[in-house]
């Protein structure tokens, strides 16, 4: 998946009326220096959403300041908010904390007119060699007041953005936040425990603005407010929109809102992403997931009955023994059929309750390992055996898709598209995440892995 930078589009939209704005997607740009030299910006904002990507954010800041040290630089996004101290001593002049649309407008206004940055709530900034954190900003009460994402600023990249197999694919927000409190999750912390919805009319306006047929809703727990969700379905129906949607839904919402899910299917819901997290009640309770294993199983039955394709996510605990991996393999084979499970390794991401609880045990401060594919907590099996089991879990499931038997099976079910996507995933998994490769990553110095290609490409003029 490579998807549009929606956070940056929101920031761009909110600045566009007062400033000349451009967005560079550094995953796709061959030369940052050339672009900066052409555009000659007074200020540069960098998105730092993913912890594992933070070294590339540092590199972008270095290149910008190396080109012109007077450019005002600021960062924002999930990681920057949760770990803003990481930017002390780096080339960022300020960090926007949390929701960015209003803060960034005030920030640039203050900076442009030489007013003290102390006035801007929701900001941390450099001042006379120290780092100052201002008061938090109030969350935006009416999300409809926020301008629609400035998609035109990334239209140059559109052919490259894709969901699993759908190209091009778009991201659309219907809500911000989540009412739940899972210990491993940073989302509810970031949105400060709130859940806010955009109006159905505004969502339809946003959906109509994107030319993509395939849309991933960014909501972390869609259907958390069933009444709102009913209204969105009505509005989509009334507007006659014909798109395909992917959404993230909790297992208990699937069980409690079966009819609503069926209505979503009628207006284009194509696939559902569900965080089942564990097949053991004790683990679910430890994660603070507030779900039962029975409920997860019921949700799977409902999804099959509704004929909805779905992806299930199961957390791999560093405490797993061989038997736990084996039990999960069995469960997935039994229950999931042709859907695509994912297996994130339990990772204390900055800002989470889990981070607070287990900070003392973390074995590496190399953020590149915080990609949920590496264990940064001590493993009961030892890293070597743990990764062997971890990769086996993936290959045992995906392997079937790259064998002639799998191909024949998929053909007989008329499911070639899914077969190809699974096969690609299996091949990429085998090549990039061999146990020895995962182990090797632990020995690399921080930032080394993401260096591959980045400076070489981005520095080219
Ligand atoms: C869509 C999504 C994806 C998409 C990709 C999105 C993209 N454009 O690249 C896909 C499905 C591919 C994906 C993959 C992954 N994701 Co993801 N994803 C999301 C999700 C659900 C929505 C992001 C979004 O667009 N939100 C809507 C926008 C408007 O919000 P926003 O980005 O936060 O922007 C606001 C502010 O942050 C701020 N802001 C943002 N950028 C900037 C920039 C500047 C300059 C400023 C001033 C402000 C600012 O202002 C914006 C408006 O208020 C979030 C959860 C969430 N709700 O945010 C997780 C999330 C970002 N993902 C997460 C993770 C862990 C991953 C994966 C590592 C998972 C995995 N195992 O593979 C991968 C990594 C991919 C990678 N490195 O590229 C974590 C990141 C946590 C962390 N600390 O690392 C999140 C927070 C989910 C979580 N459970 O905690 N993801
Ligand atoms: S994991 Fe999902 S349900 Fe739990 S707090 Fe995060 S977004 Fe909400």
Description:
With 461 residues, this protein is an alpha/beta fold. The protein has 2 domains: 6-133, Rossmann fold (3-Layer(aba) Sandwich); 162-372, TIM Barrel. It is 42% helix and 12% strand. It has 20 helices and 12 strands. It has a 5-stranded mixed sheet with strand order 1-2-3-4-5, with helices on both faces. Strands 6-9-10-11-12 form a 5-stranded parallel sheet. It is globular and about 65 Å long. Residues 455-461 have low confidence and may be disordered. Residues 1, 3-8, 10-11, 45-47, 49-53, 74-79, 96, 99-101, 104, 171, 173, 185-187, 218, 220, 344, 349, 371-372 line the site of cobalamin (B12).
Topology:
Blueprint: H1 6-15, H2 32-39, E1 43-47, H3 54-67, E2 72-76, H4 78-82, E3 94-96, H5 101-112, E4 123-127, E5 130-133, E6 169-172, E7 175-177, H6 187-190, E8 195-197, H7 200-209, E9 214-217, H8 226-239, E10 244-248, H9 251-256, H10 258-266, E11 269-277, H11 281-286, H12 293-306, E12 309-314, H13 322-336, H14 353-358, H15 383-398, H16 404-412, H17 416-432, H18 435-443, H19 448-451, H20 454-459
Parallel strand pairs: 1-2, 2-3, 6-9, 9-10, 10-11, 11-12
Antiparallel strand pairs: 3-4, 4-5, 7-8
Helix pairs in contact: 1-5, 2-3, 7-8, 13-15, 15-17, 15-18
This protein binds cobalamin and iron/sulfur cluster.
């Amino acid at each position: 998946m490579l998807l549009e930078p929606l956070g940056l589009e929101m920031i761009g939209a909110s600045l566009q009326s007062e400033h000349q704005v451009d967005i560079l997607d550094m995953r796709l740009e061959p030369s940052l220096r050339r672009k900066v030299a052409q555009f000659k910006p007074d200020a540069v904002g960098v998105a730092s959403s993913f912890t594992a990507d933070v070294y590339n954010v540092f590199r972008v800041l270095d290149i910008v300041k190396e080109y012109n040290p007077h450019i005002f630089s600021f960062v924002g996004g999930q990681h920057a908010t949760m770990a803003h101290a990481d930017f002390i001593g780096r080339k960022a002049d300020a960090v926007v904390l949390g929701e960015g649309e209003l803060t960034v407008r005030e920030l640039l206004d203050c900076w442009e007119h030489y007013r003290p940055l102390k006035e801007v709530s929701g900001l941390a900034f450099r001042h006379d060699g120290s780092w100052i954190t201002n008061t938090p900003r109030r969350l935006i009460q009416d999300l409809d007041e926020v301008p629609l994402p400035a998609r035109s600023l990334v239209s140059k990249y559109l052919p490259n953005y894709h969901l699993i197999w759908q190209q091009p694919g778009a991201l659309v927000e219907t809500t911000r936040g989540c009412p739940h409190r899972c210990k491993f999750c940073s989302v509810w912390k970031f949105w400060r425990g709130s859940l806010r919805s955009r109006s159905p009319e505004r969502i339809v306006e946003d959906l109509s603005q994107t030319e993509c047929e395939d849309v991933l809703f960014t909501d972390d727990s869609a259907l958390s407010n069933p009444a709102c969700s009913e209204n969105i379905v009505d509005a989509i129906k009334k507007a006659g929109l014909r798109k395909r949607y992917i959404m993230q839904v909790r297992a208990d919402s699937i069980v409690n809102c079966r009819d609503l899910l069926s209505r979503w299917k009628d207006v284009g819901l194509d696939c559902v992403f569900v965080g089942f997290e564990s097949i053991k009640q004790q683990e679910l309770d430890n994660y603070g997931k507030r779900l039962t294993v029975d409920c997860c199983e019921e949700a799977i039955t409902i999804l099959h009955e509704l004929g909805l394709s779905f992806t299930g996510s199961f957390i791999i605990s560093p405490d797993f023994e061989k038997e736990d991996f084996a039990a999960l393999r069995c469960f997935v084979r039994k229950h999931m059929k042709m859907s695509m499970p994912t297996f994130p390794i339990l990772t204390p991401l900055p800002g989470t309750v889990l981070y607070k609880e287990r900070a003392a045990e973390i074995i590496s401060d190399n953020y590149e390992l915080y990609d949920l594919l590496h264990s940064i907590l001590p493993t009961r099996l030892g890293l070597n055996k743990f990764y062997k089991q971890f990769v086996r879990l993936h290959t045992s499931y995906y392997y079937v898709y790259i064998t002639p038997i799998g191909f024949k099976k998929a053909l007989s079910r008329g499911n070639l598209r899914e077969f190809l996507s699974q096969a690609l995933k299996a091949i990429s998994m085998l090549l990039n995440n061999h146990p020895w490769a995962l182990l090797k990553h632990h020995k690399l110095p921080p930032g080394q892995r993401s260096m591959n290609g980045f400076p070489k490409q981005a520095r080219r003029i």
